[in-house]
Amino acid sequence: MGMIEHTFESESDSTFELERAVEAVRHAVRALEPARLAGADAARLTAVAAEGERLLGAAKALLARRTDETRAWRGGRAASVEQWLAETSGCSEGAAREALVTAERVETLPETRDRLLDGRLSIGQAALVSAGAAVDPGAEAHLLRTATRSGMRGLRQEKERVVAAATDEEAAARRARRERHLRTWTNGPATHGTFSGPTEQVADLLDALEPLTRARFDEARRAGHKEPLEAYRFDALCTLVRQPGAGVATARRTKHIARVRVDLTALVRGRTEPGEVCEIPGVGPVPVAHAREVLSHGLLQLVITDGVDVRTVVSTTRHVPPPLKIAIAERDRTCKVRGCDCDRMLHRHHTEDFVRSQRTVYAELGNLCTRHHHLVHDEGYRIIDHHDGTWDLAAPDRAPPDTAAA
Ligand SMILES: [Zn+2]
Q1: 340 and 276, same structural domain?
Q2: Is 173 within the bounds of a domain?
Q3: CA-to-CA distance for 146 and 176, rounded, in angstroms?
Q4: DSSP assignment of 289-357, as one string?
Q5: Which of 25, 243, 272, 371 could form a disulfide with 266 if both were Cys (CB 3.0 to 4.6 A apart)?
Q6: Residues 222 and 275 in one domain
Q7: Residues 163, 156: contact at Cβ < 8 Å?
Q8: Domain match, 40 and 111 both
Q9: CA of 388 to the centre of ligand 1 (A)
């Protein structure tokens, strides 16, 4: 008895601190009465809980990795460490595998590991950063910066860029072709599906749907309906099937031009190297061979970084000249609001009230998603420019209703 107590005491500081902390968390969670909290307190505590979740997620991943190394998970019914961790956590085996792989990868990435253990990075974010850094160690700092400025979607896209640039492009293209599929399964009255294929072909497909989707979206907004864009994209697909020429006709009217974003050095060399991109904007990485092929058709808008100094392009009307349009689309690939990754249906916004400045210039234009554009345009939100390419929005100070009436 005395011996056991002694062992417990001597190890307690480091080994059992986590157990005591979780016990304290359990008490705190039990004592919570969210319905009695003021909104601001609820918001603050949500952030506190999120930080706790990140910290415990990190602890879980690192401890599971040690459990895997020592094979201590064996002996129960689990057939693999992923299955054991999934059962222990109540998560999917995919999520368990991601945590284990991430814990292993951050062993050689001190900065990522440090942020993970500090509660600044979630295990999901660390998974993306470390997956990119695993193929291109030089990309770690850049991906960590992306993690602080973008949401998960933006970080995932950036990771995809890093991986694509560092991967054998021909082999990857062959695999994309080999693994192409369109699968469906029926569940009650709805049929679900997934598909995958070479990005340049999927981009063609999405391009054909884009004008029809936008038409459906505009039509619905006028009628006062709000459904997800994905719903209208489905409608667009049905329209295309019913009127086989519909997409082509619309595309011809709008003079379809293919866009590829590619580093000039990669275009000349014929493949990308770490740090370079070759992608269809808004869709994803494509082989340099595809860029060259599109180039040979003469229907390509090549976007070369710093090619034209667009900062000198000024228009004294609301009209946005084409070089400015491309430059804005390139600079603001997602909504400019910090943390918003939306890259679809973006609205070009004039920051300075055009009526006052009477000019359209690069620095005063920015892309906003539909929701943020609505806040600025209709709800009186102010734009705060961070001068690092991102904006924040500040809610208008509204006088309380009774003083406004007085
Ligand atoms: Zn937004």
Answers
A1: no
A2: no
A3: 27
A4: HHHHHHHHTT-EEEE-TTSS-GGG-EESSS---HHHHHHHHHH-SS-SBTT----SS-EEEESS-HHHH
A5: 272
A6: yes
A7: no
A8: yes
A9: 16
Same domain, 161 and 40: yes
Residue where one domain finishes, among candidates 280, 303, 326: 303
Q: Is pLDDT larger for residue 105 or for residue 405?
A: 105
Q: Note whether 204 and 298 are same-domain residues.
A: yes
Domain that holds residue 329: 311-394
CA of 258 to the centre of ligand 1 (A): 25
Residue 179 lies in a domain: no
pLDDT digits (tens, 9 = 90+) for 40-63: 999 999 999 999 999 999 999 999
**CA 370–ligand 1 middle distance (angstroms):** 7
In this prediction the pTM is 0.64
Regarding whether 134 and 68 lie in a shared domain, the answer is: yes
189 located within any domain? no
Residue indicated by tokens 């991906």: 143
**How far does residue 237's CA lie from ligand 1's centre (Å)?**
26
pLDDT beyond 50 at 2: no
Neighbours of ion ligand 1 (CB under 5 A): 335, 337, 340, 342, 369, 372
Greater confidence (251 vs 72) lies with 72
Residue 387 main-chain phi, psi, to 5 deg: 60, 25
Asked whether residue 176 is domain-assigned, the answer is no
User: In this structure, are 209 and 123 located in the same domain?
Assistant: no
Alpha-carbon torsion 95, 97, 102, 107, what sign? positive
- pLDDT of res. 70: 95
- DSSP per residue, 11-57: HHHHHSHHHHHHHHHHHHHHH--GGGS-HHHHHHHHHHHHHHHHHHH
Ligand 1 centroid–CA 367 distance in Å is 9
Q: How many domains does the chain have?
A: 4
396 or 308, higher pLDDT:
396
Q: Average the pLDDT over 351-367 and give the result.
A: 75
What is the whole-number distance in angstroms between the Cα of residue 341 and the centre of ligand 1?
A: 7
